[in-house]
Amino acid sequence: MYYRSTGEKLRFVPMYIAPRLKKVLFGEPVTFDPSRPIEEERQRITREMTERITAMAISLPRHRVVPYRNIPKRLYPYNTVSEDKNHETTRG
Q: In terms of CB atoms within 10 Å, which of 2, 5, 10, 18 comes out highest?
């Protein structure tokens, strides 16, 4: 709807917040492609946003990660050390 009314492509900016680390990270935007079918674009944008947000979480020191699925806060996982590099990765 935004593209049809303005002619401008909407950009979605991934953001990751790690309150205990006092960090807020912004990633590279994902740009809407009006030439693709809308359902395909929804899936692509969702996938790319998830990948980019996860990558930001992985880049930080160990911290409690707020998962994508809705679960009780006491069950939030921590990120753990990756086997292939000396960075942190997320689980869950």
A: 18
pTM of the model: 0.72
Q: Write down the H helix ranges in the chain.
A: 2-6, 38-58
Longest distance between any two alpha carbons in the chain, whole Å: 48
| d(C-alpha 30, C-alpha 14), whole Å | 8
User: Could you report the per-residue pLDDT of 26-63, keeping only the tens digit for each?
Assistant: 999 999 999 999 999 999 999 999 999 988 988 899 88
Alpha-carbon distance of 26 to 92, in angstroms, equals: 22
Residue 33 has which token pair?
A: 């492609």
How do the domains of the chain map onto residue ranges? 2-89
